[in-house]
Each structure stands twice: as C-alpha cells, then as structure tokens.
Design goal:
By secondary structure, this protein is α/β, with parallel strands linked by helices. 36% of the residues lie in helices and 22% in strands. It has ten helices and eleven strands. Helix 9 links the parallel strand 8 and strand 9. The longest helix is centred in the first third of the chain and has 15 residues.
C-alpha cells in the first residue's frame, strides 16, 4: 500500500477533529512536517509526495501522543519563545507567551540605563530561554554578562544545549543551586519566572501543562513559596540600585508586594498580560530618607 502526505494528513486531521482540537489540520501539518523535516509550506503544497511506511508509522505514533494531550514541544523537543526556537524536554517548563513580558520589561528599563555593562541573574533558568533571549536582544547595545541557576541538573543540561545553539556558552554561566545557596556575587538585574501554582490547583491545569515538571509549577498551599525564598535570599545578590523582575500568577500582586515590602523592597512597575492580568512586577530597594 502506498502512503502520501495527503492521505496521512486526512487521517490525522480526522482524529484530531474527533478529539476536539481547535485547529486539527494545522496540528496535523505540524506533526507531519516535524517528522519529515520539511517546512510548513512544503507539506501543504506537496500532498501527492509519497512517504515510507516507517515515516507513516512514526507520524501516527506522534499523533497518538498528541491526542493524549502531550504538547508538540514535548514530543519534538522544540518550543518557540520570542520568535526563536529553543530546545526543551520533559525536564523543563515550556515558556508561555506571557513570559515574554519579562524580556520586554528588561529592555524598557535599560532604555535610560547609564551603565555600559550589566550583570543579570536568572533564578530557576530551566531551558535558559529567558536569559538567552535577553542577552541576544541586548548584546549589541550593552556589555552583558549573565548567570542562570537551577536546582535541576537535567534542566541545566538542556540549558547548556541552548547556550551552544545560540553561541552564548562563554557569555552565560550556568550554576546548579537551590535558590541562592551556591552564589557569592551581586547582580544589576535578578529575574525569575518561579513556580507559583497552589498545590490544590494542580489538577485544574490544562492537559498540556501536566507534562511540565512539577518542580517548575507547584509552590505550596498559597502558591507564594517561591516569592518568600527570593525575597529572603536576594539581599546578598542584588546591587543597591538593582532591579528584581518577576512573573506572578493571577491574583497574587498584593501578597507578593507584601512579601517584598517586608524585606525592604518597593514595587516600581507592574505589567499586565494580554488577558489584563497583572503578570510581571519590578522591585527595588526602598529609598531611605536623608
């Protein structure tokens, strides 16, 4: 029996539609293109091209993984962030569009920055997509050195692959550390997209999120554990005029403000995501009266 791109596309699109996927044909094309190593346009315009039985079986294998809710990023090990493709795995959190706000905020803060070099720390770096993106976006404007830390050795292995991919392995340092334990220097910027999901809310997350590592999602009964850790430990690692830039969860603004205020910081900025949710906050040390 002969198999073509068109026949496997029809078959996979039908399955995806039955399972309630919003864009079944689009998802079908993505699965086929990732297996055949072709562009989206090639798949759409080459319907009569024959494929091997082996290729067809692999496409169906990945299709059934997708039908069970597994994200394409976890199937193929790639995820787009800020228009770049990053290597990912089941050991790293898939970056969400709202996390791109952290990059935007850093870029905005640096527009009036007087220093000609900066040192940035990414706490819980995961795949390192945030710190790599910031470095690539700013490298032509300012001398930037960066450090990414994570408690997961396997996540750091993925981060290392991304550093090599973007030729930044000599500019960004990776450290295995439980929060700030293995650090001894100070930074101009400390950024983080920490875990902020309440433990009782984990079962309410979408299917795709269930494939992210639990350690990158769960933050205790209140969802605030990470912010306590950062606020408590950052003093030794943030410069006096430095910025702390964090992603937060829905409805957490007041509590996170309180946590950082109790540690001597004030919020100077907040940014909402496209859904109108307070998503990124910036803190600095409170000004002392003279």
């Amino acid at each position: 029996m002969k198999f073509t791109i068109e026949s496997i596309m029809k078959q996979s699109t039908k399955f995806l539609r039955v399972y309630g996927f919003e864009r079944p044909r689009h998802e079908s094309v993505l699965i086929i293109k990732n297996n055949l190593k072709k562009s989206y346009e090639d798949i759409v315009t080459s319907k009569d091209v024959k494929i091997s039985l082996q290729a067809r079986n692999k496409i169906l294998e990945n299709l059934f993984q997708r039908l069970k809710g597994k994200p394409l990023s976890k199937i193929y090990g790639l995820k787009e962030f800020y228009s770049r493709q990053f290597i990912t795995s089941e050991e790293t959190l898939d970056p969400r569009p709202e996390t791109e706000l952290i990059v935007d905020v850093v870029k905005d803060l640096l527009k009036g920055y007087k220093k000609n070099k900066i040192n940035i720390l990414d706490v819980g770096t995961g795949s390192a997509c945030i710190i790599i993106t910031i470095t690539l976006e700013l490298i032509s404007r300012i001398n930037i050195k960066a450090t990414g830390l994570d408690i997961s050795r396997k996540a750091l292995q993925i981060a290392r692959k991304n550093l090599i991919k973007f030729n930044l392995n000599k500019r960004i340092n990776l450290i295995k550390s439980n929060w700030f334990e293995s650090l001894d220097n100070k930074f101009d910027f400390v950024i983080s997209n920490p875990p902020y999901i309440k433990i009782n809310d984990l079962n309410n997350l979408g299917k795709e999120v269930q494939f992210d590592p639990l350690i990158s999602l769960e933050a205790g009964l209140t969802g605030l554990r990470s912010y306590f850790e950062i606020a408590k430990g950052v003093h030794k690692h943030i410069k006096k005029d430095g910025f702390i830039i964090l992603e937060i969860g829905k409805g957490q603004l007041k509590e996170v403000d309180k946590i950082f205020s109790n540690q001597g910081f004030r919020r100077i900025l907040k940014e909402k995501d496209l859904q109108g949710i307070d998503r990124v906050v910036v803190y600095q040390y409170k000004r002392t009266k003279t």
